[in-house]
Amino acid sequence: MTEIPAVVHDLQRLQILKQYDILDTPPEPGFDDVVALARQICRTPIALVSLVDRDRQWFKAVSGLGICETPINQSVCAHALAQHETLNIPDLTQDARTRENSLVTGEPFIRFYAGAPLIATSGLVIGTICVIDTVPRPGGLDAGQIAAIEALARQVMMLLDQRRLIALHDERAFELRQQITERKTAQAALELSDDRYRSLFNSLDAGFCVIEMAFDKDGSPKDYRFVEVNEAFVDQTGLRDATGKWMRDLAPDHEPYWFEIYGKVALTGQPARFEHEAKALDRRWYDVRAFRIGPRAARQVAVLFNDITLRRNAEQQQIMLNEELGHRMKNSMALVQAIASQTLRGASDRIAVQAFNQRIAALSRAHDVLLQQSWTSANLADVVLGAISAHTDPARVIRTGPDVSLEPKAALSLSLLLHELATNAIKYGSLSVPDGIIRVDWRREDGALVLGWVEQGGPPAQPPERTGLGSRLIDIGMVGTGAVRKTFAHSGFSAEFRAPLHLIEHQIGQSHG
Question: Which of 178, 199, 214, 388 is spaced 20 to 30 Å from 34 by Cα?
Answer without folding.
Answer: 199
